[in-house]
Design a protein that fits this description.
This protein has helices at residues 2-23, 28-33, 37-47, 53-66, 72-84, 96-99, 110-121, 136-150, 156-174, 178-188, 193-213. Helix 4 (53-66) packs antiparallel against helix 11. By secondary structure, it is mainly alpha-helical. The radius of gyration is 17 Å and the shape is globular. The termini are close together. It has one domain (2-213): TorD-like.
């Protein structure tokens, strides 16, 4: 049980890391941190998994190229804005409602579905992050909180139920739309950093889903 809970902490941290990347532009301090042994070691740990290696290598390659990119922080911020903050047709907007068939949803509105789920679980978001509840960063942050909360459970049967809930969330609130989101990032992100991150996210969600199904 303790080993599972330690692994849960790692899973939550990874989802929170993804959430941070899609919530705001990276600062120069953030970019400096990505060149440290600690963060590179974290990425290499992901790359050690053969199912994540290809997409993680793309993230690492983009980070390496950033070191030679003129005005790297400003240019990466522009990439973020062009992809995620505009209504341009060449964007990859990070909202579930852009991609889902609303007729298949419980309330017909992804943001409403997500807001109700957050209320039922008693999980709130940062008040400074003024986005609808179906924003990718919010959904990933919520999942990280779900995972950490499951570590409070002491009975194996309850943990199995929590894993089932997490798998259901990944299936219905993430993998139902982030593959198309990732394709849009690949199409419109010419530099490739966010395209690589989105591809890695899809691969990690698929890998995590298989882990949850096996437990």
């Amino acid at each position: 049980m303790q080993e599972i809970k330690r692994f849960n902490e790692q899973r939550a941290e990874i989802y929170w890391w993804f959430s941070s990347l899609f919530s705001k532009e990276l600062t120069q301090q953030d970019l400096n941190a990505y060149q440290t042994p600690e963060v590179r070691g974290f990425l290499q740990g992901l790359a050690d998994n053969k199912e994540l290696k290809n997409s993680t290598d793309k993230v690492i390659d983009a980070l390496n190229r950033l070191q030679d990119r003129e005005d790297a922080q400003l240019e990466l911020s522009a990439d973020f804005c062009d992809l995620f903050l505009t209504s341009d047709k060449h964007a990859a907007l990070p909202y579930a409602s852009i991609y889902l068939d609303e007729s298949k949803l419980l309330n017909g509105k992804p943001a409403q579905d997500m807001a109700e789920l957050m209320q039922n679980k008693g999980i709130a978001v940062d008040n400074n992050f003024n986005e609808p509840a179906d924003h990718l960063a919010i959904e990933l942050d919520f999942l990280g909180n779900m995972i950490i909360r499951s570590n409070e459970l002491e009975q194996e049967a309850h943990l199995e139920t929590a894993f089932t809930e997490q798998k259901h969330f990944i299936d219905n609130h993430l993998l139902s739309w982030i593959p198309q989101f990732s394709e849009n990032c690949t199409q419109f992100d010419s530099f490739g950093f966010y395209a690589a991150v989105a591809e890695l996210l899809v691969n990690f969600c698929e890998l995590d889903n298989r882990y949850l199904a096996a437990n």
